[in-house]
Design a protein that fits this description.
By secondary structure, the protein is α/β, with parallel strands linked by helices. It has one domain: Alkaline Phosphatase, subunit A. Helices cover 35% and strands 16% of the residues. It has helices at residues 2-11, 16-26, 72-79, 94-103, 119-122, 129-135, 154-157, 181-198, 200-205, 225-240, 264-267, 296-299, 312-342, 374-377, 406-414, 428-432, 449-452, 461-465, 469-483, 489-495, 544-557, and strands at residues 48-54, 82-88, 139-144, 214-217, 247-253, 260-263, 349-355, 360-361, 367-368, 378-384, 396-402, 442-447, 496-502, 506-513, 523-528. A 7-stranded mixed sheet has the order 3-5-1-7-10-2-11, with helices on both faces. A 4-stranded antiparallel sheet has the order 12-13-14-15. β8 (360-361) and β9 (367-368) form a beta hairpin. α1 packs across α8, α3 (72-79) packs across α13 and α10 runs parallel beside α13 (312-342). It is globular and about 65 Å long. The protein starts with a helix and ends with a helix. The model is unreliable at 1-43 (pLDDT under 50). It binds calcium ion (CA). Residues 55-56, 94, 257, 356-357 line the site of calcium ion. Calcium ion binds at residues 55-56, 94, 257, 356-357. Pfam families: Sulfatase. This is Arylsulfatase A-like enzyme. It comes from Mariniflexile fucanivorans. InterPro entries: Alkaline_phosphatase_core_sf, IDS, Sulfatase_CS, Sulfatase_N.
Length: 559
Amino acid sequence: MNIVILNKLRSKNYSNLYIMKNINFIFLFAFTFAISFNGFSQNKKQPNILFIAVDDLRAELGTYGSDIVKSPNIDKLSNSGVQFNRAYCQQAICGPSRASIMTGARPETINVIDLFQDFRDNRPSIITIPQYLKNNGYETVYTGKIFHGQYTDEEMSWSRKAVKVKVGPNVPETEGGYALAENQLMYLKNKIALEEKYGEKVIRENWLAKGPETECADVPDETYEDGYNTLSAIATLNEMTKSDKPWFLGLGLLKPHLDWIAPKKYWDMYDESSIPIATQVNPPKDGASMGLSESLEVRVGADMPKTAEFSPELQKKLRHGYYACVSYIDAQIGKMVQALKDSGQYDNTIIVLWSDHGFNLGEMGYWGKATNYEMATRVPFIIVAPGVTDKVKGQQSEALVELVDVFPTLCDLTGLQQPKHLEGNSLVPILKKPSLKSSKPAFSLFPTPALREWAARPFTPPFRTAFFMPLIEKIETKIKTQMGDKWNRKTFEKFVMGYAMRTDKYRIIIWKDRRFPDDTPLFVELFDNENDPEETVNIAAENPKIVKELTTLFNKTYY
Ligand SMILES: [Ca+2]
């Protein structure tokens, strides 16, 4: 019965996107031998770079002190290089964070502060990491998600395409990202129901059609994109090692980004009943009302409550899904690093592992990533640099560092001059001596998270009137109550920016109208992260002297 409905729905052409994806998936790779007579080179002058980007991975891993999360391969990687314990993204959402690390420039510099801006429109001639390496004799290639969405900078950053691989007959097709028929059905039914109610355009443009938020299916790793992309990255690596050219290989893993879908064997690594849930579930006391949204992105799943709180059982299930996804991508990282070792090039390859931002799994009562707080801005970050980190491998750095530091670091490690536009600092001194202190604070920003969570752009008018309307009204009421006569929807939607600065001891978040940066801030939050690591209380009002000092430091170092 279900299959009949499913086929009927399919025949209505409801899922072109996914069919297209599957065509890619089964595309037969025509194997051609490009025989190189240069032979294998073991002693290249310039090192290769394996650049592993993980989507929405928070710093909750074995090697970051978690007793719950199973991440043996990342833990091993950390023991082979230097782990940064206080690394921060520049904006806790995919597009801006990725555009920033890849260009080595801050989100405002490239004017990418939401998911719908292309840095090439704003800074057409800015140089990206792979582009710079390509211009300096590197082969540059990626699989999966390195840049966000459609802004892949195909022509300028990359010298070649990744190898497409053939997967076996035991890999099922997915629809809506789901492998199980009942989940595919739930996705299609939900999509049709929503389109009938709100119109096809609203649903498509706001990405509101989903199936369940989680899936546990007994399928091979290659059923889902990360498993496939890892195979593709390994095949590409093996092809590139036939040449003498140094290479930059980006492996962009899509999990643990929503939906929390992973093969069953990774779910089986956890006992759901013993997974702890968040205990600090309140927004910061006296915190900014525009600082937290209402978990809209997670709520969009077909099986999720649209306005109600999440029960403890649901929270355990969601965490279970997130952790299964972490173990799934961890296994892909293990395969990739093993393939690098098998290729004979491990000793001449820099490995960078990073995530574009963290994620709140119920902490502060919030499920999502769009904040200026510690949990969402802090990221796991590990560098293995042969010849540099060998003597200090396994050490961990407590220095404050930023993803914008990656570009200058890679320049130093490859012996290339740093392009002039770079806004970060090389981390090579810290890689050589991980006990070094920070030389600067770390900066993150986010425009009015409460009113922009979804894609970091102002909610579109149809989105406001679709099923999230009651939550959006709740958010606006909170902001109006706190901000009084400063409230103006247009201002808060379009122009308010939260600037976060993390120092050794504090996090300050200065909320400003971007049009008037020299005016008195609209609101200030101050957290004592040394004594209040969960950022439970805004202590700005009682500490005007510290606020003044940190504001001065911010004005001096950020601008
Ligand atoms: Ca992301």
